[in-house]
Amino acid sequence: MKFPLTPRYNTRTRKKGEEIEIIEVDIREIRYVTREGKKLIFHLITGEYYGIFTLETAQKWLEKYGFRRLDNSNLVNIETIEHIDEDLNVHFKNMESTAAISVDYLVNYEELDHLVNEINSKFFLEILKNRDRIKKKRKRLSH
């Protein structure tokens, strides 16, 4: 299935009468989707593209293709996950960038527990015990 995206985020700055450039990408190429403020960013092996709809809409469209919502801003293609590290960073096959799962805004602890165990064969409770360490480490790295 093809999915409509745009390589240009700020569609409001286009000139009057200028059309929004829409491209179609194969859903199998999408690794994950993140929401950053009002931006909806689709991360593919070939680069980043923007959705002109909400994360909730993307979730409805993509769930049947193996995408799962992990927290309030990440929708991931389960089939493309290589592993989830101890700091809750999701690593994808054939891709350098990662998705950081927010420990404060998890959508479903049980589903994430199952996912982590299925992919890593680790126990999610151990990760939850380290959540403060994860938050401090991420804060330190972002400064």
Topology (SSEs and partners):
Blueprint: E1 2-5, E2 23-26, E3 30-36, E4 39-44, E5 47-50, H1 55-62, E6 67-69, E7 74-77, E8 81-84, E9 89-92, E10 98-100, H2 109-120, H3 124-129, H4 131-142
Antiparallel strand pairs: 1-2, 3-4, 3-7, 4-5, 6-7, 8-9, 9-10
Can you describe this structure?
This protein has four helices and ten strands; from the N terminus they run E-E-E-E-E-H-E-E-E-E-E-H-H-H. The chain is of the alpha+beta class and 143 residues long. The mean pLDDT is 78. The relative contact order is 0.13. It has a single domain, classed as LytTr DNA-binding domain (OB fold (Dihydrolipoamide Acetyltransferase, E2P)). 27% of the residues lie in helices and 30% in strands. It has a five-stranded antiparallel sheet, covered by helices on one side. A three-stranded antiparallel sheet has the order 8-9-10. InterPro entries: LytTR_DNA-bd_dom. This is LytTR family transcriptional regulator DNA-binding domain-containing protein. It holds the Pfam family LytTR.
Mean pLDDT: 78
Supply the number of structural domains: 1
CATH topology: OB fold (Dihydrolipoamide Acetyltransferase, E2P)
The 3D shape can be described as globular
Strand content: 25-35%
Order of helices and strands: EEEEEHEEEEEHHH
Number of strand elements: 10
Content-based structural category: alpha+beta
Keywords: DNA-binding
Domain HTH LytTR-type: 21-106
Protein name: LytTR family transcriptional regulator DNA-binding domain-containing protein
GO molecular function: DNA binding
